[in-house]
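Title: Prediction job returns without error message
Component: structure pipeline
Severity: low
Priority: P3
Assignee: unassigned

Description:
Job completed but the reporter wants confirmation the result is attached to the right record. Sequence as submitted:
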Amino acid sequence: MTKNEKLKTFLTATKGGIIISCQSSLGDPTHSPEFMVAFAESALRGGASGLRVNGVEDIQAIRKRVDLPIIGIWKRPGLDAHGILITPTFDDACRLVEAGADLIALDTTARVRPNQENVAEIVTRIQTELHTPVMADCHVFEDSVRTGADIAAPTLSLDDTSDEYTPDFPLIEELLRRQKRPVIAEGRFWNPDDVIHAFTLGVHAVVIGSAVTRPWLITERYVRASLKNRSREA
């Protein structure tokens, strides 16, 4: 398939739907491909339209069991002073596509990449050499137009004016208003009303992560409201 054919297939499958982010970090109780497959199968059973998956091993494991479109990423911790870079090199993208990713998401900020690779060139190479569409994970609006990515997402938004459960709607609205690519909303979606609001604004799809795939965070949220916790804080 060509890049445009893959993009059309992905957009058709995910339009108006929920994409579940099946990811874990070293030290998480769910840090294994087996858990990620279980999350992916649960997402499929729940009616999800797609998945966002980190790393070759997890993508390979999920692809064997679940037939949903996969946004492939590769989180690389500690590559610069600012922490994690998402899919920082072209080689990362190659391995993700080989593993079964239908679309590649990468950090399109202005941060320096390993081997001094240029992010716009990485995007173009993914599209032309791997025949695979690309999603720009943005921190600010400028990240959405820095490359020729096919989709924009506010994945890296760090809006300090909202709490940990409130999406960055100002950035989502700016992405929708100022550029023409489809927008996939992502980041701090915990409340179904926020999902409804995002679709009302005009996003293509919504990615949900921690709200469904990090049980300890879900537990913490309820524990904060518990009588035991409130008595302790009094």
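Comment from assignee: result matches the submitted record. The mean pLDDT is 95.
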